[in-house]
Amino acid sequence: MRNILLPVLGSILCLSARAVSLPRESTNVAGRGPNIIMILADDLGYGDLGCYGQKMIKTPNLDRMAREGVRFTNFYAASPVCAPSRCSLITGLHQGHAYIRGNATLVPVPGQSGQAARRLPLRPQDVTVAEVLKAAGYATGLIGKWGLGEPETSGVPNRKGFDHFFGYLNQNHAHNYYPDYLWRNQERVTLEKGTYSHDLFTREALEFVRRNRERRFFLYLAYTIPHANNELGRSTGNGMEVPDDAPYSTEPWRQQEKNYAAMLARMDGDVGRILALLKELDIDNSTVVFFSSDNGPQGADEGGFNPDFFASHGVFRGIKRDLYEGGMRVPMMARWPGKIPAGRVSHQVWAAWDFMPTAAALAGTRPPPGIDGISMLPALLAHRQKASEYLYWEFHEGGFAQAVLLGRWKAIRPGANKPVELYDLQTDIRETRDLAARHAEILRRVEAIMKAAHTESEFWPTHPERASVETMPGGVFFLKNGQGRNPAVRPHRAQPRLRGHFHCFSESRAPSWKTP
Ligand SMILES: [Ca+2]
């Protein structure tokens, strides 16, 4: 990706997440390049689609999309949970540099209270793919789940490059598929009772495409399924919320699994409708459609769905919240008739933070300088592709964990003070044999990358116990020196100092999937 020494210097000089600015050349350029649609599923695993080996759930439209385009086998999400994964996707920065590195911060966000006190909004200086494409003349729309800015903050979609927004701002709100309201731009829209939000998103997406068919557009369609309704899951044991379990009603499965499969069927049909509309409007050949997921499949603790039932994690170890392959490796397909050769399977290694520069390259513009991603346009077109030197991840729930992919080697440090595990993906795709003790030189290299690729974040400190963080009742954190203090919360008697583990997240850690 880049010389290892440069980020070391960078991490010394820059203690906060980096901000990047739009290159001047990219502004006021008339729309060029194809339309771009990014369809992102929520918690859909590598093994959930027919074209990725799924046998029990039928996904004919997505399978057809794969046959008509390229299917990638080595594509990685940026984080094993929603918000950080999506932040990296749209800003081109991996988690060592991204501004948002968790669903919830470890310290309160200044000026915010209640739920928002731990939801960090994107800042004006965090450049998104929507801003890049808008500057290149694209109409930009976001439909579905955002999670990167609460109401009236700097991070709302309309302030981050989206002309049009319809959906959820808050991720917990997005658990509810029959919500009382959604946001249309910055207005709260009351919904009719019994409206399934996913259906509204598809309707809205079809309308967006129709409305913008005469001009270049970018549509980020962030579906919320097959994620669970966690609150419903906790109260009833079945949080897999869908209006109808067809076409799986008569299967001898538990209701959770029927509903999960029905969610995928619903989404598959809707992707088919979007592809059919492109054809009907005669913009099929001028539209690139991507399909991917934000992280691996959820555990049974979220909606009662068992990710082993359909082998949603494929053959891999781990699920959502794991840095093992099952939590990180997700489907990625791209379809652009006439340009992307049909029916290809590509083993190109790439990650969510490569999406922004890839979209910029498609649009004929340049991404902002200083990002981690590189354009994968050559790989899409089956041309010779430059590869990143390594991929880097970090994750802060349950302690500071890191992972590196370096060629065939996958290294994972499961906690700040834990030894690094090393797996050879070429011979051990399930990550069962830790070879760290046998490959000292590789271990030194990946440890150097872990040091170099990470910059410290004030909201996700790697050693919060040293950063003088104290926890408050209800899981609210304070910095002892008063910085970051939320004035809306009255201090109570401080709880014992934390020692690297946090148990206050509403999104609790899923149990690890055991390799058979
Ligand atoms: Ca997710």
Mind explaining what this structure looks like?
Helix 2 (60-67) crosses helix 7 (255-280) and helix 5 (197-211) packs parallel to helix 7. Helix content is 22%, strand content 17%. Strand 13 and strand 14 (421-424) form a beta hairpin. The protein has a ten-stranded mixed β-sheet with strand order 6-5-4-3-7-1-8-9-2-10, with helices on both faces. Strands 11-12-13-14 form a four-stranded antiparallel β-sheet, covered by helices on one side. Strands 15-16 form a two-stranded antiparallel sheet. It has helices spanning 5-13, 60-67, 82-91, 129-135, 197-211, 230-236, 255-280, 300-303, 325-328, 355-362, 377-380, 440-453, and strands spanning 35-41, 70-76, 139-145, 164-168, 181-184, 187-190, 217-222, 287-293, 332-335, 344-351, 391-395, 401-406, 409-413, 421-424, 469-472, 476-479. It has one domain: 3-Layer(aba) Sandwich (Alkaline Phosphatase, subunit A). The chain starts with a helix and ends in a 37-residue tail after the last strand. The protein has 516 residues and is of the alpha/beta class. The structure holds calcium ion. Calcium ion (CA) is lined by residues 42-43, 82, 227, 294-295. Calcium ion is lined by residues 42-43, 82, 227, 294-295.
What is the approximate shape? globular
Give the amount of beta strand, in percent: 15-25%
- Cα(first) to Cα(last) distance is 34 Å
Mean pLDDT: 87
The largest pleated sheet is described as: 10 strands, mixed
Strand order of the largest sheet: 6-5-4-3-7-1-8-9-2-10
Question: What is the overall number of helices?
Answer: 12
